[in-house]
Amino acid sequence: MTSFARVESSQNWGTLIWEIRTVNHRYLEPHFRLPDSMREIEPRLRDLLRKSLGRGKVECSLKVIRGEGDEPLNVNRHTLHQLNGALAVISEIIPRAKKADALEILRWPGVLEQTEADIGIIHNDAVEAFAKALEQVQESREREGAELKQYILQRLANTGQEIIVVRKFMPELLQAQRDKITQRLNDMKVEFDHNRLEQELVFLAQKADVEEELDRLETHIKEVTRILNSAGAVGRRLDFLMQELNREANTLGSKAVGVEVTQSAVNLKVLIEQMREQICNIE
Q1: Does the first or last residue of the chain, that is N or C, have fewer Cβ atoms within 10 Å of its Cβ?
Q2: pTM of this prediction exceeds 0.85
């Protein structure tokens, strides 16, 4: 499901801003964009994400803004020397290259250091804020899920109506086909074995009988409804049932003996495809 969450957490040391975006995906595929100083907590974040979500492509972005205070700025001299050496190499190869100013150098990852105590506090705050953002994502997905449920239930109801239509027309269509064959033989004014004709008509009726397919369609509709009303992740079970519904609709179409049944088979396939497209968004 698609969802978005943004959590801003203000602390004594500064501010954390989490943004989480999710889109449909068959499996859980998380992507994190974190400052270098926060890479250490990525395993904790992934663990929280797995416990909260089961499917979806999830993009998680964290921005850390340090507050203005009286703390001294600690410069990592080793990183600074490495950066200076790299700049010297660039100047040697490309003399006209733009020189970096001091503020740009300070923004380079790792140049400014934080105390270990600060890092630990910031890490914990970041994990707590991430958990809150996940709660927002879940709430958003639950709202969307409720809407998708109503969408699918409506199409299930329409599917049931198509089954009623087919059941209504089948006896009339079989009788019409029977009468048509008999009339053609009479028009040809040829002698025929009535017993053999009766056997062939029975065989033809058996081939065109779709009662079993209609029964299975109704069974699948009941199962989809039951799963939609159950708790937990249901997306993959619904995927499977859509395949089964589509299989029965195809068989129904191949056995169709009249325009009405053919049209109903087409309508069923359209309804099933509409449900399948939305079920791809359900966890």
Answers
A1: C
A2: no
